[in-house]
């Protein structure tokens, strides 16, 4: 006998919600999913009427669902937001070029303006060229640091008040785990925040409207809505450590689906013991971007690339900052150390 929807008790259920275990019909699932995102936005006061918001769009399932739901809720509940899609082109042939085509189609489907900023125009380096120099071990360090700044620069060009990103509950739980595993207290404290305040000039506030949405539900939503998204993994994705955290989380979820939410709640309620040293935020003396060191991570990585010393920004090399700032050459011994990368 077909199972009836637990919510409307009229239509046939087509899915079991991963988050609650309820059997729902398509329409009731759409409604529940959208309402939960709306409640998240309202409860955390993520937006104010009249604000202009950049939606970080990669063409993947999370950001495609985010763009779709933001447009829908903006109209349904009259948020009064001006929405724009903001994409970063890392310069990864065979991956980002294809996913950007998806974003361009989304732009047409959702009738939203689109701005693309590229690593090549911002830094003079594509990820393809970076991987050629640094190999496949530390490439995501470069890419992650550059992307963060690229989104800010794009947002400033667009003059948006805020950026929203497609981070979902699984991503947040995974980041909590990663920061526990690394003992990164400063990040652990920040990573569960649903929105970041403006941290200074050059940094645009960010928020995560899908923070409490399970990845599995995002996939179901995209599937049943027949959204147009790109599902291939990055060709340079080696991040083994994060992979372990992800697998561990998925294993926990299969035994107890609430694990994802429980880990987020644990992260949200952690408090840092008094006296723990936290990095003091200042600004980069070269580019003015937020940094707890004389030079921001992005400038150090870039200097390393431009000097052919890719290890400069990997690990802690703060003692080299003065040398970089005063354009002093490195000694032969230092150069040797900073050149050797494991591929
Ligand atoms: Fe960049 Fe690494 Fe993500 Fe690929 S997997 S887009 S290289 S951060
Ligand atoms: Zn800088």
How would you summarize the topology of this molecule?
Layout (H helix, E strand, L loop, with lengths): L14 E2 L6 E2 L1 H18 L8 E5 L4 H16 L5 E8 L6 H15 L3 E5 H5 L3 H8 L4 H20 L3 E3 L4 H14 L2 H6 L4 E2 L9 E2 L7 H10 L15 H16 L3 H11 L12 E2 L6 E2 L5 H10 L14 H5 L6 H8 L4
Parallel strand pairs: 3-4, 3-6, 4-5, 6-8
Antiparallel strand pairs: 1-2, 7-8, 9-10
Helix pairs in contact: 2-9, 7-10, 7-11
Bound molecules: iron/sulfur cluster (SF4) and zinc ion.
Write a concise keyword list for the protein shown above.
ATP binding; 2 domains; tRNA binding; 343 residues; 14 helices; two-stranded antiparallel sheet; CTU1-like_ATP-bd; 47% helix; alpha/beta; Rossmann fold; binds zinc ion; binds iron/sulfur cluster; six-stranded mixed β-sheet; EC 2.7.7.-; single chain
Folded structure, characterized:
- Pathway: tRNA modification; 5-methoxycarbonylmethyl-2-thiouridine-tRNA biosynthesis.
- It is found in: Cytoplasm.
- This is Cytoplasmic tRNA 2-thiolation protein 1.
- There is one protein chain.
- The chain has 14 helices and ten strands.
- The protein has about 350 residues and is α/β, with parallel strands linked by helices.
- The radius of gyration is 21 Å and the shape is globular.
- It has two domains: about 25-270, 3-Layer(aba) Sandwich (Rossmann fold), CATH 3.40.50.620; about 300-340, no CATH class.
- It has a six-stranded mixed β-sheet. Strands 1-2 form a two-stranded antiparallel sheet.
- The protein binds iron/sulfur cluster and zinc ion.
């Amino acid at each position: 006998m077909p199972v009836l929807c637990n919510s409307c008790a009229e239509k046939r259920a087509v899915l079991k919600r991963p988050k609650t275990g309820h059997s729902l019909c398509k329409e009731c699932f759409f409604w529940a999913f959208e309402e939960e995102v709306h409640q998240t936005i309202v409860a955390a006061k993520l937006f104010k009427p009249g604000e202009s918001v950049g939606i970080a769009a990669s063409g993947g399932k999370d950001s495609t669902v985010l763009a779709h739901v933001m447009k829908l809720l903006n109209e349904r509940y009259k948020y009064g937001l001006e929405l724009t899609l903001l994409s970063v082109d890392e310069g990864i042939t065979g991956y980002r070029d294809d996913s950007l085509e998806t974003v361009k189609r989304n732009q047409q489907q959702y009738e939203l303006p689109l701005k693309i900023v590229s690593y090549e125009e911002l830094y003079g380096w594509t990820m393809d060229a970076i991987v050629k120099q640094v190999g496949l071990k530390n490439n995501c360090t470069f890419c992650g640091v550059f992307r963060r700044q690229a989104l800010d620069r794009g947002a400033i060009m667009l003059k948006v008040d805020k950026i929203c990103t497609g981070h979902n509950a699984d991503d947040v739980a995974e980041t909590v785990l990663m920061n526990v595993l690394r003992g990164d207290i400063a990040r652990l404290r920040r990573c569960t925040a649903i929105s970041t305040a403006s941290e200074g000039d050059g940094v645009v506030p960010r928020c995560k409207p899908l923070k409490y949405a399970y990845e599995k539900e995002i996939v179901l939503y995209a599937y049943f809505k027949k959204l147009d998204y790109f599902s291939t993994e990055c060709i340079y994705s080696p991040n083994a450590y994060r992979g372990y955290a992800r697998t561990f989380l998925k294993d926990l979820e299969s035994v107890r689906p609430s694990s994802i939410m429980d880990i987020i709640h644990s992260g949200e309620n952690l408090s840092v013991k008094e006296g723990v040293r936290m990095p003091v935020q200042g600004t980069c003396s070269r580019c003015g971007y937020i940094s707890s060191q004389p030079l921001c991570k992005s400038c150090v990585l870039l200097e390393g690339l431009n000097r052919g010393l890719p290890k400069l920004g990997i690990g802690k090399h703060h003692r080299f900052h003065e040398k970089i700032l005063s354009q002093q050459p490195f000694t032969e011994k230092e150069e040797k150390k900073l050149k050797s990368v494991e591929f």
